[in-house]
């Protein structure tokens, strides 16, 4: 079952203050009846075919013609697309059970997350691409992989489903890395890298968030391909081109809204764990950031061209500290945002 997105959707909705009224059919339920049952304010936009509701402080959004429902920052997939019948919005039999669960999914550390999905952990470079070569011949690809494996292990131990773009020394193309993040159920893409510069004095880590896309970025072939791949795997009518554009647009809006918080949380976690003082996150247009549809961050864990940091990054205990800091930053932010 598809779960969780992209860590949430946000769309401004206009139009009538109520959902179209009418009777249900069979085991299906009218959205109006649920709005009444849970005392929710419901807004219907006939132009975009979007329904927006509020329940217990959480925004619920759905599109007629799609089986994806956003509950706050959680992406759910019901058994069939929502539809309209004689002006009435009809939801499938499992809509109420999934959207209004009585219990949360347990999470390690006493926290609870609803419908937790997958995180893609990407170890930069690999195989024939060593990345940067640092002090003493240290290869970026090796440092990236070790830290990425540790992050993945931490997240799995915390009950989070993880997919790695590579778990060994192999070459993965940049497009393939973004494709891995374009599967239903994936909510976040985290790419691990090591920095390098000509000066041996430069040190410190950086955390990058995906920034706004320009006109060329939005029609970049890889991004378009990833969008088609995602929509092709959702239960949507294939002829609804406008609906697909709305889905991709909503994902983009949510990505811009969510990613900065994740990047800042990871930067703060690294600063505290590595005792390097407060570090602010930055925005960048790296290929894997602008071509992924889900929120994406890229972490530069340190400068392998700096003798001191190179020595630290060779130490397994230090690499574990980085992995722990990244994991804590991500999970704290996810908890705070209600993921």
Features:
2 domains, Aminopeptidase, 10 helices, 6-stranded mixed sheet, 5-stranded antiparallel sheet, single chain, Copper Amine Oxidase, Chain A, domain 1, alpha/beta, 339 residues, elongated, 16 strands, disordered N terminus
Task: Give a summary of the structure in a few sentences.
This protein is an alpha/beta fold. The chain has helices at residues 31-37, 95-99, 140-157, 174-180, 215-218, 221-232, 241-274, 287-290, 307-313, 316-336; strands at residues 29-30, 41-45, 50-55, 58-63, 68-71, 74-77, 83-85, 88-91, 105-106, 112-113, 118-123, 161-164, 186-195, 206-210, 282-284, 296-303.
Head-to-tail CA distance between termini:
17 Å
Anisotropy-based shape: elongated
> Roughly what is the average pLDDT, rounded to an integer?
80
Q: Could you name the CATH homologous superfamily of the largest domain? A: Zn-dependent exopeptidases
Low-confidence stretches: 1-26, 103-115
- Cα-atom Rg, whole angstroms? 21 Å
Sketch the topology as an H/E string, one letter per element: EHEEEEEEEHEEEHEHEEHHHEHEHH
Spatial arrangement of strands, main beta sheet: 12-11-13-16-14-15
Q: In percent, how much strand structure appears in the residues?
A: 15-25%
Q: How many helices in DSSP terms?
A: 10
Q: Biggest β-sheet, characterized? A: 6 strands, mixed
* CATH-derived topology of the largest domain: Aminopeptidase
Structural classification: alpha/beta
- How many separate domains make up the residues? 2
In the CATH hierarchy, what is the class of the largest domain?
Alpha Beta
Q: What is the CATH-assigned architecture of the largest domain?
A: 3-Layer(aba) Sandwich
């Amino acid at each position: 079952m598809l779960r969780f997105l992209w860590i949430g959707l946000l769309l401004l909705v206009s139009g009538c203050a109520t959902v179209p009224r009418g009777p249900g059919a069979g085991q299906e339920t009218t959205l109006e009846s649920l709005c009444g049952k849970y005392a929710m304010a419901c807004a219907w936009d006939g132009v975009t075919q979007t329904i927006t509701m509020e329940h217990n402080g959480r925004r619920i959004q759905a599109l007629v013609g799609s089986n994806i429902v956003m509950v706050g920052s959680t992406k759910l997939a019901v058994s069939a697309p929502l539809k309209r019948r004689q002006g009435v919005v009809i939801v499938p039999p499992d809509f109420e059970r999934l959207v209004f669960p009585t219990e949360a999914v347990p999470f390690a550390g006493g926290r609870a997350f609803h419908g937790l999905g997958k995180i893609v952990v990407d170890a930069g470079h690999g195989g024939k691409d060593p990345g940067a070569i640092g002090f003493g011949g240290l290869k970026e690809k090796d440092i990236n992989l070790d830290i990425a494996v540790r992050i993945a292990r931490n997240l799995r131990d915390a009950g989070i489903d993880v997919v790695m773009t590579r778990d060994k020394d192999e070459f993965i193309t940049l497009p393939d890395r973004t494709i891995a993040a374009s599967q239903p159920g994936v909510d976040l893409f985290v790419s691990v890298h090591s920095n390098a510069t000509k000066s041996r004095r430069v040190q410190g880590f950086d955390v990058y968030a995906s920034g706004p896309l320009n006109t060329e970025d939005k029609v970049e072939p890889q991004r378009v391909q990833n969008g088609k791949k995602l929509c092709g795997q959702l239960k949507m009518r294939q002829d609804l081109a406008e609906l697909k554009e709305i889905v991709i647009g909503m994902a983009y809006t949510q990505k811009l809204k969510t990613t900065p918080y994740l990047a800042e949380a990871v930067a703060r976690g690294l600063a505290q764990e590595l005792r390097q003082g407060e570090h602010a996150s930055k925005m960048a247009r790296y290929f894997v950031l602008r071509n992924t549809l889900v929120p994406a961050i890229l972490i530069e864990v340190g400068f392998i061209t700096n003798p001191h940091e190179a020595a630290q990054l060779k130490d397994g205990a230090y690499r574990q500290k980085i992995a722990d800091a990244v994991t804590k930053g991500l999970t704290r932010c996810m908890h705070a945002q209600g993921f």
